[in-house]
Amino acid sequence: MNADQTMTMLLHHGFIIYAHLWLIPLAPFVGFLVNGLFGRHLPKWLVTTVALLAPLASFCVVLCDSDRSFYPCVETFGQWISLGSLHVDFSFVLDQLSLVMLLVVTGVGFLIHVYSVGYMHDDPGYARYFSYLNLFLFFMTTLVLAGNVLLMFVGWEGVGLASYLLIGFWFQKPTAAAAGKKAFIVNRIGDFGFLIGIFLLLANFGTLTFSEIGAKLAVSPALTGGILTVICLCLLLGAAGKSAQLPLYVWLPDAMEGPTPVSALIHAATMVTAGVYLIARTHFLFDRAPIALATVAIVGAATAIFAATIALAQNDIKRVLAYSTISQLGYMFLACGVAAYSAAIFHLVTHAFFKALLFLAAGSVIHAIGGEQDMRKMGGLRKELPVTFWTMTVAVFTIAGFWPLAAFFSKDAILYAAFVHGTEGQILWFVGLLTALFTALYMFRLWYLTFFGELRSPDVHPHESPWSMRAPLVILALLSICGGWIGIMRFSSYLAPSVGVHQAVSHIPHLEWILTGAAVLAAFVGWLIADRYYLRKPQRPALLAVAMPAGYKLLANKYYVDEIYNAVLVKPLFAISRYVLGWIVDTAILGGIAWMLAGIASFAGMILQRWQSGNLRSYAAWLAAAAAAILLFVLLPELLRNFDFAIAIVRH
Amino acid sequence: MSFLQHDVPLNWYLLLSTVLFSLGVVGFLIKRNLITVFMSIELMLNAVNLSFVAFAYQWHAVKGQIFVFFVMMVAAAEAAVGLAIIIAVFRARNTLAVDRIDLMKL
Amino acid sequence: MHLILFFLFAGFCLAGAINLLWQTHPINSALSLIVVMTSLAVLYLLLGAEFLAIAQIIVYAGAVMVLFTFVVMLLNAGREERTLGSRAAIPIGFPAVVVLLGILATIVLHAQGLAAAHLGVGLTNAKNASNLDVLSQVLFCELLLPFEVTSVLILIAILGAVALARRDEAERTAEK
């Protein structure tokens, strides 16, 4: 027997080789505790060391586990819930999909931790910041490693909590606090869908473990549609909330109130990808529900182009990147919707690289010019910030989808999978193509406005960032360059055991080259337009805005979505709370009941008070009445029984 | 026996006792002078004494009469103390009207 | 003979009791009460309780009522005033009394097996043992302890009466 067979035999006989999976969430949790409880009293270098060791330790454990020859690797830590037929354990599962996610989470997470050391150096809440970051890593790794839906939900909620804490990190700013609240509440709406999905899963499958649900589905091949569609739509609602898709994306632009490394880590690379991860994890459910899958694709495509159009008219550099994130997440959902899960994960990985790089570079720019985020006040920074400029250039070209950078491969994989999916797929492909054009357009707009031309805020002296901020930029730039070279074929065959194989082939010859060429052409067109409008004749955009005031205002105000939500949802809820629950239930009913009880007591007291008059004669009267009553009570039955009133006196 | 030599049934003694007791209660209720109220109480005690004596006759038991003896003793002691209290109350309130002595009201 | 005596002195009892209620001046009520007590003494005699009859006259009519009369005179109690009144006394008290009277009277009148009182029948019919003999026999032999305790009780009552009714130092000096 060779090694594989030995391992298989050992597994079948119940021996599980210990992969120390529990170390992966534990290290960040320890970091959270230490920095959270004692961070204020520790010297800064100690806080930094603890905070950096945590993701590094997790990353090392993940690396050690990455050459296992057998997957999935399951570790169980004991029973959590055991109620009748419901059994939920604390179990971690490591397979190819979770390994890829963990590499991204811990690796990029570590780089962003290093960056934060420089970025947050002068902030008074230094230790608190790192403890929250480690808390986030703990929950995110739990989410990725979870072997059942309930444990994943724990991680899901936890990352939402960490996101709230970090968005509202500078909680004295009212906008930051409001943004944190908004993120949490909108996420909650998604979580509601997720919970309904969990309940339905439980009711229909009796178990919440992914492998068991997959096994149950495998033995009943005729089970499609119907309840599965409902379950998948509920899970989609949860994923849309977490991954900022239509209509629950409104929290992500506001989340830019948090520190820039937070935006890079949570709202670009890791947390918002949890929705995509969920769909990939439960792919066996979505495969059986074509309607739900189509919904996923449509939601993804619509979000992609919607967000891309809004990004065209934003002036805050971080807002542009936020809408860009929403748009790219739309791409990933589109990929999932055409059952190309590996392409979605591939794009997730490359997106983590270049989006984190974009955010960190933007943070470097903001740091350099003293906190200014409006692009209209930037310009000509490429001379003062060379490292930042070159790394950001790599990222901009990557996101536009030029060869041989990372996103070229992943975006093309998605567009190809969409095109060969049928006629609806071709419509989706066209939407994706258009989005690619817009993406190139607004990214190059950002590039030109920030780094070219003349500096538009006169009394600022830009200075390059410290090495702790530059080093992660360089590493991420390198990853953006060569991250896609693994190729979609090798990637999907690696992931096949965990996400299934969905290889659609088309019989049009050289289709792949044609589509690739179309995508690159779209990116070029976008670059050309940006070049025309923002480099050669910088006053033309202003003229265009004047010429189409309605269109410009619609885009600049984000299609007034926030205002619509406010008027349709938020204000009525507040009105109901204040008037129905506040006045009617709280004041009138509950207050009224309390008032009535008190009133009864005091009224009774008032009546009974008259009885204690201090008057001797009335007391005597009541005494006589009581005596008569007792006598009556005792003797009357006797009297009535002897109806002829014959009472015999018996001699004792 | 002629009418005049009839014996008196004990029922009538007991009836007299009941009526005297009721009159005592009525007096306790309607009289407005503290001393008169106290006198009604003595009337009630006497009525009870009468019924004790009647029953002592019925059972030929001397203990009934001894009980009456003790009641008399206690009533005498009670009368002494009660009148002393009435004097103290009169000194404090300067009135013997029952309705005016109502400091114990809420 | 028995019947006449009974009716006569029962009548005196009732008349005295009703007069006690009727009169407004406490001294008149006190005198009516003396009449009641004396008539009751005669009724005890009719029932063969000679000692009690004399004790009634000596203790009740002779000591207790005299005490009442002394207090009436000491406090100079005048006619009753029509004072504030009590709204509860009559509507609640009178029905109570009626009920009490009714029940007890019913029971008493319909009780069977009660003997009829003869004149001259005492506790015993022995020639040499009078009522007093029998009573004192029981009182001083069997019930000696209660008897002695009663004397202590009377002592306490005397002390209490003195303590309650004396004037304290301040009042005495004020009077002087």
What layout of secondary structure does this protein have?
The complex is a heterotrimer of chains A (652), B (106) and C (176).
Chain A: H1 3-12, H2 23-38, H3 44-64, E1 73-83, E2 86-94, H4 96-119, H5 126-145, H6 149-167, H7 174-205, H8 210-218, H9 227-242, H10 251-254, H11 260-269, H12 274-281, H13 283-287, H14 290-311, H15 317-337, H16 341-368, H17 386-400, H18 406-419, H19 423-451, H20 467-482, H21 488-499, H22 511-536, H23 540-547, H24 549-556, H25 561-611, H26 616-641, E3 647-648
Antiparallel strand pairs in A: 1-2
Chain B: E1 8-9, H1 10-30, H2 34-59, H3 62-93
Helix pairs in contact in B: 1-2, 2-3
Chain C: H1 2-22, H2 26-46, H3 50-75, H4 89-110, E1 111-112, E2 116-117, H5 131-142, H6 144-165, H7 169-175
Helix pairs in contact in C: 1-2, 2-3
Description:
The complex is a heterotrimer of chains A (652), B (106) and C (176). Chain A is mainly alpha-helical and 652 residues long. Helices cover 72% and strands 3% of the residues of chain A. Chain A has helices at 3-12, 23-38, 44-64, 96-119, 126-145, 149-167, 174-205, 210-218, 227-242, 251-254, 260-269, 274-281, 283-287, 290-311, 317-337, 341-368, 386-400, 406-419, 423-451, 467-482, 488-499, 511-536, 540-547, 549-556, 561-611, 616-641, and strands at 73-83, 86-94, 647-648. In chain A, strand 1 and strand 2 form a beta hairpin. The longest helix of chain A is centred in the last third of the chain and has 51 residues, at 561-611. Chain A is globular and about 120 Å long. Chain A starts with a helix and ends with a strand. Chain B has 106 residues and is mainly alpha-helical. The mean pLDDT of chain B is 89. Chain B is elongated and about 60 Å long. Chain B has a single domain (3-100), classed as Helix Hairpins (Orthogonal Bundle). Chain C is extended, with a radius of gyration of 22 Å. The termini of chain C are far apart. Strand 3 (647-648) of chain A pairs parallel with strand 1 of chain C.
